[in-house]
Amino acid sequence: MSKIQSTFQRLQATGRRALIPFITAGDPAPELTVPLMNALVEGGADIIELGVPFSDPMADGPTIQRASERALANGMTLRRVLDTVREFRTGNAETPVVLMGYANPIEAMGVERFVSAAREAQIDGVLIVDYPPEECESFARAAKDAGLDPIFLLAPTSTEQRFRDVARVGSGYIYYVSLKGVTGAATLDFDEVAARIPQIRAQVGMPVGVGFGIRDAESARRIGEVADAVVIGSRIIEEIERSPRDRLAANVIAFLREIRTALDQIEGGVR
Amino acid sequence: MQMADAPYRFPDPSGHFGPYGGVFVAETLIPALDELRAAYEACRDDPAFIAEFEYELKHYVGRPSPIYHARRWSDLLGGAQIYLKREDLNHTGAHKVNNCIGQAMVARRMGKPRVIAETGAGQHGVATATVAARYGMECVVYMGSEDVRRQAANVYRMKLLGATVVPVESGSKTLKDALNEAMRDWVTNVHNTFYIIGTVAGPHPYPLMVRDFQTVIGKECLLQMPEMTGRQPDCVIACVGGGSNAMGIFHPYIDMPDVRLIGVEAAGEGMESGRHAASLTAGKPGVLHGNRTYLLQDDDGQIIETHSISAGLDYPGVGPEHAWLKDSGRAEYVTVTDQEALKAFHDLCRLEGIIPALESSHALAYAARLAPTLPKDKILLVNLSGRGDKDMHTVAEKSGIQF
Ligand SMILES: Cc1ncc(COP(=O)(O)O)c(C=O)c1O
C-alpha cells in the first residue's frame, strides 16, 4: 500500500479529513521551501502538494502564475525540486509529497529518468495537469511501477466515461476541481460539490480531495463535510506573498491551523 | 503526376500525427474540446455548411486569390520561375481570415455569441475582430503587452472593429502568453464562448480544423497551376510560424511525392546567435498549448523566448502536423534570417510592385536562394501569405527612417 493510501486509511479510521496544502517549490526562495514544507506539516498538513514551476502554466490563475514566475526567476528547476524533497526527507519520512506541474519539464528530463529520480527522492505521487488519462497510459504505468501514485483531476463537467478512465489509470486520490476556470477563482458551488463527490467516490473507488476556490475555515469546513480531503493553494501563496520573511513560517502555520481546527470539528465519522 | 502509394490520412481519430498532436490539456477543458469536436465533425460533413463557407470566401474574402508569375524577379535571379499565390489580396490582407470565417461559422452553429482569440502581430486578432463584426459577435482579443506596444496600429484596427483588446502581462508578455490567457478565459467562460485559435496548433481538433479551413489555398493552386503553366509546381514554399498558411498550401500536395514541400522558419539574427524562432530546426519535441510538437526550450523544459523581425513567426512551438511531416521526411524545413527576409521584401517591392508581409518575405527569400540553383523550366510556387502594409514601421525603422 502506498503512503498516500495508508494516510487516507488512517484518517478515515478516525473520521478525519485530509488537509492538503499546495506551495510552489522555489517561492519565495529556494532555501525557504523546506522550512515552508515543515511549516505546512506543523500547521496540520497530511499531504503536501509541491508545485514544479513552468514557464506556461496554462491552467493556473494569476496567484499561482506569479509564484511560478518567482520560482523560475530564482533558478528553480525540476532537478532542484527533486533535491528539495530529498532534503525535506532528511527531517520528515512520513508526510506524503505529491509533485504537481506540467508535462514539458518531465518530458525534457525523460519519463524514465524522472520516475526513478522521484522514487529515489521518496516522492509519493505526481499530478501532471496537462496529462489527461488518454495521453499518459504509459507514463502512469511507469509511475505506478516505481511506487508513485498518478493523481488525476476531475471537473464538474466530467462525464462518467471520464470517471472510468481515471479509475483505470490513476491511484492514490482524485483531485476534484470544484469550479470552472483556473486556480484561484473565487466562486464555489457547495451544493454541486455535495452532489458529485459521493458519485465520484463510488465510481472510482478512491478518496476524493476538492480544490480550487477554498479560501478560509468556513469554505474548508463545508467542503470537508462531503469530501475526503481539502486542497488549498492560491490562498497559501497569497499568505506567502504578503508575509515578511521572518513571519513566513509563523503566518502559514497560523493560517493552516484555523483550517485544521475547522476540519477536525466536522461530525461525520467514518464513511 | 505521380501519386503516393497510400493516401495520407492524418490525424488519426484521436488527433495524433504519429507521436505529435493529441489533447494535452487540464481536465477542465476536456468537455469543451469534446463539444467542439462533435460540433466540428457535424459541420465538416454538412453540405450546407460547406456551401456557406464557400459563399463567404467568395463574396467577403474575395476568393479565389490569383496566382502571379513574378517574371522580372525570376529573370533577375536567372533560374527557376517563381509563382506567387496571392493571399495578400484577401480581405484583411492575409490568409488568416479564411480560418476565422470557418471557426466563427462553427461558433454560430454552436450558439456561442462570444469569440476570443490570441494574437502576436495582430493579424489574427484583426481577422477575428473583422469576422466578429460581420456576424455580430462579441470579441475579446488577448495580446502580450509587449506586442500591444509594438503593434499600435493593429490594436487600433481591432478597436475600430469593435473588439476589446486585453494586454497580457504574464510570462514573456508575447504571443505564447496571450495563448495561455485565452485558454484561461475559455475554460472559465466556455458556456458562451468560442476560442478561435489562429494557427494549426493547440489541442485536437484545432490543428485539423484550421488546416481544413486553410486548404482552400492549396486546392485553388491545384486548379490554377495547370491552367497557367500546364502542370503542377516542382516546389511549394511557405513560411512557418504556427504553420497554417504552409499547411493550407501543402496539404493538397502531400500525396504527390514529386512536388517538394519546403517550410521556411525564422532564423532571426542567425541560428548561431540563439536569437531565432526556428522550432523545427533547433527545437526538441515536448508538450505545450495542448499538443506534442517541436518546441524551443531550455534543458529544464522551460519554453524560451523567440526572436524574429516578423511578429507572426515569433512563436516557440509549431503545429504538430509539421513535426510529423518533418520526421516522416515528406516536407523539408529550412531557415531564413531577418536580413535575408528584408532583402526579399525590398526586391519584391522594387521589381514586382508588391509589398509583402515580413512573414511571407521569409518564404520569398528562400525561393530567391533556391531559384538560381535550378534550371529555368523549373517552377517554384510561393505562398505570399500576406501584404506588408502592417510592417511599414518595422522596415522603416530598420532603414533608419522615422515617420
Ligand atoms: C502574413 C502572415 N503570414 C504568416 C503568418 C504565420 O502564421 P502561420 O504559420 O500560421 O501561417 C502570419 C501570422 O501572423 C501572418 O500574419
TrEMBL record, chain A:
Transmembrane segments: none annotated. Its EC number is 4.2.1.20. It catalyses: (1S,2R)-1-C-(indol-3-yl)glycerol 3-phosphate + L-serine = D-glyceraldehyde 3-phosphate + L-tryptophan + H2O. The active site is at E49, D60. Coiled coil: none annotated. PROSITE patterns: TRP_SYNTHASE_ALPHA. Pathway: Amino-acid biosynthesis; L-tryptophan biosynthesis; L-tryptophan from chorismate: step 5/5. Keywords: Amino-acid biosynthesis, Aromatic amino acid biosynthesis, Lyase, Tryptophan biosynthesis. GO terms for molecular function: tryptophan synthase activity. InterPro entries: Aldolase_TIM, RibuloseP-bd_barrel, Trp_synthase_alpha_AS, Trp_synthase_suA. HAMAP family: Trp_synth_alpha. The alpha subunit is responsible for the aldol cleavage of indoleglycerol phosphate to indole and glyceraldehyde 3-phosphate. Belongs to the TrpA family. This is Tryptophan synthase alpha chain. It comes from Aromatoleum buckelii. The lineage of its organism: Bacteria, Pseudomonadati, Pseudomonadota, Betaproteobacteria, Rhodocyclales.
Automatic annotation (TrEMBL), chain B:
The modification N6-(pyridoxal phosphate)lysine is found at K96. Its cofactor is pyridoxal 5'-phosphate. Pathway: Amino-acid biosynthesis; L-tryptophan biosynthesis; L-tryptophan from chorismate: step 5/5. Keywords: Amino-acid biosynthesis, Aromatic amino acid biosynthesis, Lyase, Pyridoxal phosphate, Tryptophan biosynthesis. Residues 62-384 form the Tryptophan synthase beta chain-like PALP domain. One of its GO terms (molecular function) is tryptophan synthase activity. It catalyses: (1S,2R)-1-C-(indol-3-yl)glycerol 3-phosphate + L-serine = D-glyceraldehyde 3-phosphate + L-tryptophan + H2O. The keyword Magnesium does not apply. Belongs to the TrpB family. The beta subunit is responsible for the synthesis of L-tryptophan from indole and L-serine. Tetramer of two alpha and two beta chains. This is Tryptophan synthase beta chain. The gene is trpB.
